[in-house]
């Protein structure tokens, strides 16, 4: 499911306009991204948690040349599904 399909599904389930649903989804994703950028964890009880994880620096390989390269440490977003989501998928 892509964003347009999500907007359409939410609109059909709630009776809201597609425009209102798109704005709401954009706001939710923006708030989650801003919270993660500031180091906060976002928990939606039953659905899951979004948090930032630190990846260590590591040795890698350039696929074109085969030479070794150093891959720097970086922060990456991580999602951990909640109990209800795990049960719904299983």
UniProtKB/TrEMBL annotation:
Superkingdom per UniProt: Bacteria
Keywords tagged on the record: DNA condensation, DNA-binding
GO biological process entries: chromosome condensation; DNA replication initiation; gene expression
Region (Disordered): 54-90
Chain intervals with Basic and acidic residues compositional bias: 77-90
GO molecular function: DNA binding; identical protein binding; structural constituent of chromatin
Protein name: HU family DNA-binding protein
Organism per entry: Aerophobetes bacterium
């Amino acid at each position: 499911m892509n964003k347009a399909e999500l907007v359409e599904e939410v609109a059909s389930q709630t009776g809201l306009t597609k425009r209102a649903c798109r704005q709401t989804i954009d706001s939710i994703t923006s708030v989650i991204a801003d919270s993660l950028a500031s180091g906060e964890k976002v928990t939606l009880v039953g659905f899951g948690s979004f948090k930032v994880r630190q990846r260590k620096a590591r040795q890698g390989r350039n696929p074109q040349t085969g030479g070794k390269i150093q891959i720097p440490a970086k922060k990456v977003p991580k999602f951990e599904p909640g109990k209800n989501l795990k049960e719904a998928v299983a």
